[in-house]
From TrEMBL:
Keywords: Membrane, Transmembrane, Transmembrane helix. It comes from the Bacteria. InterPro entries: NAD(P)-bd_dom_sf (IPR036291), SDR (IPR050259), SDR_fam (IPR002347). This is SDR family oxidoreductase. Pfam families: adh_short_C2 (PF13561). It comes from candidate division WOR-3 bacterium.
Amino acid sequence: MIGKIILADKPKTITPYLILIICRFCVYLIMRIDLHKNVILVTGATGGIGSAIVELLGEYGATIAIHYYKEKERALDLAKKAGNNSKIFRADLSRPIQCVKLIKEVLNTYNRLDALVNNAGIYESSPINRDIKRWLKDWNRTININLTSVGVLCREAVKYFIKSRGGRIINIASRAAFRGEDKDHWAYGAAKGGVITLTRTIAKEYGKYNIKSFAIAPGFVKTRMINDYIKRFGVKSIIKQLALNELTTPQDVAPAVLFLVSGYMDHTTGSTIDINAGSYIR
């Protein structure tokens, strides 16, 4: 029993669940996050983390520009769930020119952009004993999607934010940026390290234009991206690395994005939030 309250002379137990509900309601009353009239572009929106971000931001009133590449039906379903005039936008982020076009299409559609969430990414194995041509192809594909597209999208967003007098960028990086990655994923680790430095550079150089830049570094998250890893090594090999003894879910990551786009954490610009269930503490 956590505590008791008296109603009509009868003791009533306050359960931990009720306390959680009360705390959440108090936080809501204090902070009152309202994203109505905010247009937010989320890349890789049809993936596990992306979907959770879209749905949560939609709950708080944001209009979401939902980026997808192949899963159009999933994107349409997300737009319907998010509401608030959210729309879908297709782009192949491995092609820089399509990244430029994506920002332009969002601006042409909504006439504004308040935040960019760079969530799209791939995690593909590329052992060093592969033929150099194949290895370079894998390397370039990972770098193009996980780093170059982030750079190009940030470039276009920053140019617009300077004109519009401010905006926010949230880049989804990885714990690999700080602890390194395994021997078959050099490009992934290198790209995510670059994303962290890019995030800091934007925060440092463009804060005077009211532009804020943040990174989130998840560890293993229960999404399709880690399916190959699980097939090779098993879930237990992941769980034993985690202080919390459970896999992080997309719903554990999305609230961090919500707070960052809300404006309540603007003075943490340039920083990285670790969300990894205690697998890597720095």
